[in-house]
Amino acid sequence: MINIQNLSKSYGRKQVLKDTSFTVNNGEIFAILGHNGAGKTTLIKCIMKLIPYSGEIDYEFPEKDIYKNISLQMQSSVYEEGAKVYEICNLYKQLQKSDIDIDELLDEFDLLSFKKSNINNLSGGEKQKLSILLTLINKPKVIIFDEITTGLDIVARRKVWGLIKKVNQEYNTTIILTSHFLDEVEYLANRIVILEKGEVTLKGSVGEIVQQTFGNKKKISFVVPNLVPNLKDGPLEQELGNVTRDGNRFIIEYDAEQEAEILEKIKESNGTDIYIKNYSFEDAFLKNLGYVINEKGEITHE
Ligand SMILES: Nc1ncnc2c1ncn2[C@@H]1O[C@H](COP(=O)(O)OP(=O)(O)OP(=O)(O)O)[C@@H](O)[C@H]1O
Q: Are residues 184 and 246 in the same domain?
């Protein structure tokens, strides 16, 4: 468990983290989400005690053992020119006085055939697989991945997701990750914090964050043919209340329990092309930043 209480950090006069508090539980995959400059990497540097800060971070192991217990993998690693895969693995093994079987680990990560390859000749996906493998050599309790899938194609990303899940489940390792990819976080994370200008604005599971943001609200969109376009305060608006309208297409935001009543009214109005939308994690994330995606898929300020 890592317990972060009232963490604040400034670079000169610029405050980057403001009174941030949350707990990472043992065995979970925990994601830190936020747009560029939100303070994610700074937060990780604080957890790793790489920079000074104010506030409290408590670990379940003595602070002097942080590097034995937490492995950190940043977005891109730089390896010595000409270094071979097995040489780097053995170097990590010696430095960390680990007794792990490197061949077995390479085999598990489908990298055994690359054992004698020059690391710089590996593809982006293979390099990231190796990065994940290297974090395991000292058998840490916690691994932190900072934007580890940035720059990978969709297939390589999904393979890395599989490995992160495997490391979490089979090696019983707690994972903390930062990412810009909502699908990645949705797929991997048990719990999430969303940082906005250094402050935690939302925390919880994907479902909890959507619920905190939208409650039981849903959206329905439908077309009523043969209506005069842009008729202000027409009969349908008067009947249904919170309606927005674009030509003959109507959009209503409603509470889930009103659904049967709304559908009935749409039927009475000869509505067609009916589309019901449940708010997604992406909708919640964007709303938190002050944006919405409209019916045409365009992003606009609320
Ligand atoms: N050493 C530093 N000195 C001064 N300012 C810094 C330093 N490191 C980071 N910052 C600033 O702190 C803010 C947060 O940076 P940080 O790298 O933590 O953000 P991030 O959420 O990881 O961003 P990204 O998603 O772009 O990687 C940014 O505005 C950045 O310019």
A: no
Domain span holding position 292: 213-301
CATH of the domain at 278: 3.30.70.980
| Distance of CA 16 from the midpoint of ligand 1 (Å) | 7
Ligand 1 atom nearest to CA at 43: 18
DSSP label at residue 279: -
Q: Is 42 in the pocket of ligand 1 (CB under 6 A)?
A: yes
User: Which pLDDT does position 236 carry in this prediction?
Assistant: 61
Counting atoms of ligand 1 from 1, which one is nearest the CA of 35? 25
Of the CA atoms within 13 Å of residue 42, those in its CB half-sphere come to 24
Instruction: Specify the pLDDT at position 249.
Output: 86
Between residues 283 and 268, the one the model is more confident about: 283
How far away, in angstroms, is 130 Cα from ligand 1 center? 26
Q: What is the average per-residue pLDDT within 162-191?
A: 93
Instruction: Examine the domain organization and report whether 151 and 296 are in the same domain.
Output: no
Q: Is 96 in a helix, a strand, or coil?
A: coil
Q: Is the CB of 235 under 6 A from ligand 1?
A: no
pLDDT over 70 (residue 244) = yes
Q: Evaluate whether 245 touches 230 at the Cβ level (below 8 Å).
A: yes
